[in-house]
C-alpha cells in the first residue's frame, strides 16, 4: 500500500455477521507491524457490544464510550463496519452511519513490513489475543480516509473507486488478497472458507504478510521468527505453541516428525510440531492442530499410517477432547505429516460402557500391527473395577473406525496412562505412566495379561515423564519430556531402548547423539584437595555441554565421589556409590551439607571403574553410567557454568564438548 511510505490516513472496512454479541475485544481486521503497533476494528473491548478502534496500549482508542451505541444485529445479519483514520481524528462507521468520532494527536503509519489479521486483534509476544467469532464476507484496507457516503456506496464482493490496496473477498474458497499487496496469506487454526465467507469460531484467523522474506519465514506459526535448529534438549519457542508436554514421533522418508501437546493460552489447546533428519537437530514448525470452540482442553495422541497397501495411504493422528465432563477420542488425517485435517465427528471414538466408565479417561491410542490385518490399539482409559484392567484395548481395520475390546488384566501396577507398546523379542512391552513415573509392563499376548517387569521396572523417573517408543530405521528408541523446576518443558535426548537376555528393558545412550558434540573443551583439574575441585574453564551451560570421563567407584565405606554443578549461590552434587547408584542433592563447595533429594539404582553390575556421560543445558541434566541412563534431573536453578568434582583422584579422562551449532556441521 502506499503504506510502503508509511501512510497514516486509511480506512479498515469489513462486512461481518456477529455470532456472539458478548464476545470481548474481538478483532475483525487488523494492521500490525513488527514492533506490535496495530490498528484494528474491534468489538466489545472497553464496552460490551460496542464497535471501537483497537490500538496498541489504547494509544488511538477513546476510552469513554458511554454515548456510543451498542451493536444489536442478529447472528445472520450481514453488516458493514469501518474505522476511518484521517487528519487529527478517528471515526467508527456502521452501514454508512457514523457511530463515533474523536480527535487523536497522531495516526500510526504502517510500512511494507506490516501484516494483516482477519479475525484476530493481535498476535505477537503475548500470543494470540482477541479472536472474533462470526463470519466475514469481505475485508478491505484503503490507503485514504473514506467518507460515510463512500462507505455506504461500497458493496461486498464488488470492486470500488477508489480501489482498495488490500482486499479479501473469499470467492471460490480463496484466502488470497485479490489486490496482490499481501502475497503470503494463511488460514490459521480452525479458520475456514465456506459459502464465500471466512468462518471464524474463536480458534482461528487469516494471517497475511506482504513479503515472506521480510519475516524470515513464510509460515506465520513461526511468530518468534526463530527457526534455528536445537539440539540436546529441544524446547518449543513459538508463542503460538506455548509450553510443551507429551511428545510423540513418526519417521517417514528420512524425516523425523516430532509432535507435542502444548498450551499457548489456557489449558492444553494445540498440537505442535518440529522436524529433524537425524533425530538430533530439530527445527520448529509450530501448531498443526488447535483446540476447537467449546472444547475444554485437548489431549495427547500418536501417529500411524492407515493400514493397507500402496504409496498413497494417509497418515492418521488421534487426539482427545474434553467437552464438559467427558473425554473422547477424535482423528485427523494428512498426506504429508505437516498439514492435518480433522475428520468428521462421526469418527469420534467413545467409551464402550460394557467395560469402561462412561466419564472416565479416554485418551491417546498407541497402535501395533494386528495379525490378519489392521491395528491393535492401547490407550489411557478407566476400566470398570471388575475387569481387572488399567487401560483400554481395541482394534481397527482402517485405523479410524475403532472397536473397544475388554481391557487386559494388569498385575502389579495401579491407575495410569499408556505411553507406548512394542513387540520386542516376542513379548509385548508397554511404557506405562503411573505415580509420576514410567514403568515397564510386559505380556506374552497382545490381549494380556500385563504384569510389572521383574527387573528395572521403573525406567524413567525424576523431573521427567511420558516416555514413548520410536522406531528410527533399525533402532528402537524412546522419547520423553524433561521438566524444569519452573515448569518449562523440553524434549530430552532420544534414548536407545533395548532388552537383555532376560528380557529386561533398559534405556541408554543412542550412538547418533554423538552428532550433538561441537567444539571440544579442554577441562583442567586442579590438584586434589579437600572439598570440591572446580574445573577450568567455566562453561556455557545455557547453550549446553556434554561432559564425559571415567571414575573409580568408591568402596562401601569410602568417602563419596561426585560431580558438582554450580547454580546461583550454591550447587548440586551427583554422588556415585560403590554399586553404581547415584544420588542428587545440594552440596557446599567444601563438600559439606549434602542431602540427597533423589536416588536411583539400576540393578546392574557396573564394575569398579565406570564411564560417565553428563548432558547439561540450562537446569536440565541427563546422566549415563556405562551408557545406561541413570536419571533425568532438573537443578533448582539454571547452571552457571561452574563444574567440579569431589574426590578428584577418582576421576580420569575428563572431557567436554559444546553443543554443535548449525554452522559447525
Describe how the helices and strands are arranged:
Blueprint (H helix, E strand, L loop, with lengths): L9 E9 L7 E7 L5 E6 L7 E5 L23 E8 L2 E6 L2 E7 L11 E4 L1 E5 L2 E5 L1 E10 L5 H6 L12 E3 L15 E6 L2 E3 L2 E5 L2 E6 L33 E10 L2 E9 L6 E7 L6 E8 L6 E9 L9 E9 L2 E9 L6 E2 L19 E8 L5 E7 L10 E5 L6 E3 L4 E2 L5 E8 L2 E8 L2 E7 L6 E3 L5 E3 L3 E9 L2 E9 L5 E3 L3 E5 L5 E5 L7 E5 L10 E3 L10 E8 L8 E7 L2 E7 L5 E5 L11 E3 L8 E9 L2 E6 L2 E7 L8 E4 L4 E9 L6
Parallel strand pairs: 29-33
Antiparallel strand pairs: 1-5, 1-11, 2-3, 2-8, 3-4, 5-6, 6-7, 8-16, 9-10, 11-12, 11-15, 13-16, 14-15, 17-18, 18-19, 19-20, 21-22, 22-23, 23-24, 25-26, 26-27, 27-28, 30-31, 31-32, 32-33, 32-34, 35-36, 36-37, 36-38, 38-39, 40-51, 41-50, 42-47, 42-51, 43-44, 43-50, 44-45, 45-46, 47-48, 48-49
Describe this structure in words.
Strands 1, 5, 6, 7, 11, 12, 14 and 15 form an eight-stranded antiparallel β-sheet that branches. The protein has a six-stranded antiparallel β-sheet with strand order 4-3-2-8-16-13, with no helix packed on it. Strands 29, 30, 31, 32, 33 and 34 form a six-stranded mixed β-sheet that branches. The chain is globular. The chain starts with 9 loop residues before the first strand and ends in a 6-residue tail after the last strand. The chain has 665 residues and is mainly beta. Among the domains are: 2-215, Jelly Rolls, CATH 2.60.120; 412-509, no CATH class; 516-664, Jelly Rolls (Sandwich). It is built from one helix and 51 strands.
Amino acid at each position: 500500500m502506499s503504506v510502503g511510505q508509511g501512510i497514516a490516513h486509511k480506512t479498515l472496512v469489513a462486512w461481518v455477521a456477529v455470532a456472539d454479541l458478548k464476545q470481548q475485544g474481538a478483532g475483525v481486521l487488523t494492521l500490525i507491524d513488527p514492533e506490535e503497533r496495530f490498528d484494528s476494528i474491534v468489538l466489545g473491548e472497553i464496552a460490551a457490544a460496542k464497535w471501537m478502534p483497537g490500538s496498541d496500549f489504547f494509544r488511538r482508542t477513546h476510552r469513554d464510550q458511554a454515548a456510543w451505541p451498542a451493536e444489536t444485529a442478529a447472528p445472520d445479519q450481514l453488516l458493514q463496519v469501518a474505522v476511518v483514520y484521517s487528519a487529527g481524528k478517528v471515526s467508527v462507521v456502521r452501514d454508512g452511519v457514523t457511530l463515533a468520532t474523536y480527535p487523536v494527536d497522531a495516526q500510526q503509519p504502517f510500512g511494507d513490513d506490516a501484516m494483516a489479521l482477519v479475525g484476530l486483534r493481535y498476535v505477537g509476544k503475548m500470543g494470540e489475543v482477541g479472536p472474533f467469532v462470526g463470519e466475514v464476507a469481505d475485508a478491505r484496507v484503503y490507503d485514504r480516509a473514506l467518507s460515510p457516503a463512500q462507505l455506504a456506496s461500497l458493496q461486498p464482493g464488488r470492486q470500488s473507486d477508489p480501489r482498495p490496496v488490500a482486499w479479501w473477498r473469499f470467492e471460490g474458497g480463496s484466502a488470497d488478497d485479490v489486490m496482490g499487496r499481501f502475497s503470503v496469506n494463511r488460514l490459521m487454526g480452525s479458520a475456514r472458507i465456506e459459502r464465500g465467507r471466512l468462518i471464524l469460531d474463536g480458534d482461528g484467523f487469516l494471517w497475511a504478510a506482504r513479503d515472506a522474506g521480510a519475516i524470515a519465514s513464510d509460515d506465520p506459526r513461526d511468530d518468534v521468527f526463530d527457526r534455528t535448529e536445537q539440539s540436546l534438549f529441544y524446547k518449543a519457542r513459538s508463542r503460538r505453541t506455548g509450553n510443551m508436554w507429551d511428545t510423540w514421533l513418526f519417521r517417514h522418508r528420512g524425516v523425523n516428525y516430532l509432535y507435542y501437546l502444548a498450551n499457548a493460552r489456557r489449558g492444553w489447546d494445540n498440537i505442535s510440531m518440529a522436524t529433524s533428519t537425524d533425530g538430533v537437530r530439530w527445527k520448529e514448525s509450530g501448531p498443526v492442530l488447535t483446540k476447537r470452540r467449546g472444547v475444554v482442553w485437548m489431549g495427547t495422541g500418536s501417529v500411524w499410517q492407515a493400514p493397507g497397501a500402496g504409496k498413497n495411504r494417509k497418515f492418521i493422528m488421534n487426539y482427545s477432547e474434553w467437552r464438559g465432563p467427558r473425554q473422547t477420542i477424535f482423528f485427523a488425517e494428512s498426506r504429508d505429516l505437516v498439514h492435518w485435517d480433522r475428520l468428521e465427528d462421526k469418527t469420534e471414538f467413545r467409551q464402550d460402557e460394557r467395560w469402561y466408565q462412561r466419564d472416565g479417561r479416554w485418551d491417546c491410542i498407541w497402535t501395533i500391527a494386528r495379525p490378519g490385518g489392521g491395528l491393535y490399539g492401547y490407550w489411557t482409559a478407566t476400566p470398570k473395577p471388575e475387569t481387572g484392567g488399567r487401560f483400554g484395548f481395541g482394534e481397527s481395520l482402517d485405523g479410524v473406525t475403532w472397536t473397544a475390546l475388554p481391557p487386559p488384566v494388569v498385575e502389579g501396577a495401579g491407575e495410569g496412562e499408556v505411553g507406548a507398546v512394542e513387540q520386542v523379542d516376542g513379548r509385548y512391552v508397554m511404557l506405562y505412566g503411573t505415580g509420576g513415573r514410567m514403568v515397564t509392563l510386559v505380556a506374552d499376548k497382545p490381549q494380556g495379561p500385563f504384569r510389572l517387569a521383574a527387573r528395572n521396572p521403573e525406567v524413567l523417573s525424576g523431573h521427567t515423564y511420558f516416555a514413548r517408543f520410536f522406531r528410527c530405521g533399525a533402532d528402537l528408541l524412546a522419547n520423553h519430556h524433561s521438566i524444569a523446576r519452573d515448569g518449562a518443558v523440553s524434549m530430552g535426548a532420544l534414548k536407545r531402548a533395548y532388552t537383555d537376555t532376560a528380557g529386561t528393558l533398559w534405556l541408554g545412550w543412542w550412538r547418533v547423539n554423538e552428532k550433538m558434540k561441537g567444539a571440544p573443551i579442554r577441562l583442567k583439574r586442579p590438584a586434589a584437595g579437600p572439598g570440591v575441585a572446580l574445573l577450568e574453564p567455566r562453561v556455557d551451560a545455557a547453550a549446553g555441554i556434554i561432559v564425559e570421563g571415567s571414575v573409580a567407584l568408591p568402596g562401601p565405606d569410602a568417602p563419596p565421589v561426585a560431580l558438582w554443578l554450580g547454580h546461583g549461590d550454591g550447587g548440586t552434587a551427583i554422588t556415585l556409590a560403590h554399586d553404581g547408584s547415584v544420588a542428587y542433592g545440594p552440596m557446599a563447595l567444601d563438600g559439606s551439607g549434602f542431602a540427597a533429594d533423589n536416588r536411583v539404582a539400576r540393578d546392574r553390575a557396573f564394575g569398579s571403574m565406570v564411564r560417565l556421560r553428563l548432558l547439561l543445558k540450562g537446569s536440565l541434566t541427563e546422566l549415563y553410567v556405562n551408557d545406561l541412563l541413570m536419571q533425568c534431573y532438573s537443578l533448582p536453578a539454571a547452571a552457571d557454568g561452574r563444574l567440579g568434582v569431589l574426590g578428584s583422584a577418582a576421576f580420569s579422562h575428563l572431557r567436554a564438548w559444546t553443543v554443535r551449532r548449525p554452522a559447525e556441521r
